[in-house]
Amino acid sequence: MLEIEVENGFCRVEHSRVNAMLETDLTPARGGRGLSFSPTDLMAAAVGSCLGSTLEYEARLMGMDLSGMGVSVKLKLCHLRENVQSLAVLVRLKKDIGASRYDQLRKIALESTVVRSLASNIQIDLEFSLAPGYVPG
Q1: Cβ-count burial of 51 within 10 angstroms (0-12 exposed, 13-18 middle, 19+ buried)?
Q2: In what order do the strands lie in the sheet with 70-78?
Q3: Positive/negative CA dihedral, 57, 38, 110, 15
Q4: How many CA atoms lie within 13 A of 29 on its CB side?
Q5: What's the pTM value of the predicted model, to 2 decimals?
Q6: Residue ranges of the chain whose pLDDT lies below 50
Q7: Fold assignment, 39-130
Q8: C-alpha–C-alpha distance, residues 120 and 113, integer Å
């Protein structure tokens, strides 16, 4: 269970089962101090970490090694209502997995729990790339 304390746009979130804590703060434009993650940053983190861990797990079951993979998520806000309009997700792989496997990974990524739970009007642009320093084997 998550317990959240709120004061002046600053939130302290505690996960009681694992005894972990994080903080959020509104941006200055929204009346906060901008000293920590914003709530939309946490949304991007949820998408990226769920998508990445799901890809890594499912790839391992298929005999693929995605170790060293990285995920970047960039939010685009709709300025009229300040809601999330789209997410640009870049999955960086350290190893080439072969052209036929990218479509499999794309389907897996778009079916990850958090991505499936997003509102249908949020566009997700998903790309895969080889990380800098990739050397063909």
Answers
A1: buried
A2: 70-78, 83-93, 123-130
A3: positive
A4: 3
A5: 0.85
A6: 137
A7: GMP Synthetase; Chain A, domain 3 (3.30.300)
A8: 14
